[in-house]
Amino acid sequence: MRDLRIVFMGTPEFAVASLARLVEAKYTIAGVITSPDRPAGRGQKIRESAVKKYALQKGLPILQPVNLKEAVFLKELADLNANLQIVVAFRMLPRAVWQMPAYGTFNLHASLLPNYRGAAPINWAVINGEAESGVTTFFIDEKMDTGAIILQDKVAIAPEDTAGMLHDKLMVCGADLVLKTVIQIEEDTATTQVQENQPGQRPAPKIDKATCKIDWDRPGEDIYNHIRGLSPYPAAWTHLVNAGETLLLKVFASKFEKEKHLLENGAVRHDRTAMKVAVHGGFICLEEIQLAGKRRMHTSELLNGLNLSKSAHMA
Questions:
Q1: Residues 216, 279 contacting (CB under 8 angstroms)
Q2: What's residue 269's pLDDT?
Q3: How far is Cα 197 from Cα 181, in angstroms, rounded to an integer?
Q4: How many domains does the chain have?
Q5: Do both 178 and 233 map to the same domain?
Q6: What pLDDT is recorded for position 304?
Q7: CA angle at 67 for the pair 63 and 69, rounded to the nearest 5°
Q8: Domain end among 156, 187, 218
Q9: Helix (H, G, I), strand (E, B), or coil: what is residue 138?
Q10: Are 174 and 242 in contact (CB under 8 A)?
Q11: Could you tell me the pLDDT band of residue 40, with boundaries at 50, 70 and 90?
Q12: What is the CATH number of the domain that holds 13?
């Protein structure tokens, strides 16, 4: 049985679940590496990462390097004398960092690799209408998400799941997988499988503003998946053109109703309680939306204060 000294690297809430599982299992956490504090929000108040907040509560040593290649940080990391490093939702590591511990550095990725390598695997799995996703632990190498796989576990994606819902499922499943992986490394029973590219495998590139814009000329099912795959963050968006005014509208929740019609794509049909957008094969019924500068609300609330013309449409 190996005596493990672990350095944990992570930043958001997704990573906290894995760190907490290790702490609860009484593993020695020699140090926690997380992002530097940053100003955020309208007031630009300095905000600590979710991982830092948890580490402070547990009295764990914390390092917050700006540059992972800096000599001062590399010495501080070496001085922690860890023999295993675990990465969950952090940055790409330079070779000098990931090759440091004797038992290696493994990463938890929120997909079934080699599918959905990249920065946004949760969003893209939902956007692409997948029926399942999962989590993978693998030993880090020089490329992104290409290292030898240790363990994987699958998670079903329900037709109504948003990216936020899948995030929460994978966060819990991922924490379990991290613990299973650590146990195997501790017992020296871990085996690995080299990743091989598969025909038709899908990437998971970073989500940007252009990615989030709704294309009303796409099939209705694709638009529905696009909206839920970006909810609650960063959120799909569109322009609502109403009486000569163009309004920025974010869409957080919708339904797709299959129905034959002769309307142009993007045409809006509405009453006092509902707003529907014509698309190929039916209508996208908008349920939760947000106008620029306003709070997120149910569509019926917005319609109470917004006078939509008969020619209103999405663009």
A1: yes
A2: 94
A3: 23
A4: 2
A5: no
A6: 87
A7: 100
A8: 187
A9: strand
A10: no
A11: confident
A12: 3.40.50.170
In a domain, 197, yes or no: no
CA distance 39 to 158: 36
220 shares a domain with 131: no
Range of the domain at 248: 209-314
Alpha-carbon separation of residue 191 from 88, 133, 138 (angstroms)? 20, 22, 10
Confidence of residue 36 (pLDDT cuts 50, 70, 90): very high
Number of Cβ within 10 Å of residue 282's Cβ equals 20
- pLDDT higher than threshold 90 for residue 307: no
Q: Which helix (H) or strand (E) holds 9?
A: strand 5-10
E strand intervals along 124-169: 132-139, 149-156
Residues in the chain: 315
Condensed to tens digits (0 to 9), the pLDDT of residues 113-158 reads 999 999 999 999 999 999 999 999 999 999 999 999 999 999 999 9
pLDDT at 42 over 90: no
- Residue 39: band (very low, low, confident or very high) from pLDDT cuts 50, 70, 90: confident
Q: How far apart are CA 204 and CA 122, in angstroms?
A: 8
Nearest to 157 by CA among 217, 116, 203: 116
Residue 98 and residue 144: Cα distance in Å, rounded?
Answer: 13
d(CA 148, CA 144): 12
Query: To the nearest whole percent, how much of the chain has pLDDT over 90?
Result: 90
For tokens 């070779």, name the residue: 95
How large is the angle between the packed helices 50-58 and 13-24, nearest 10 degrees?
A: 20
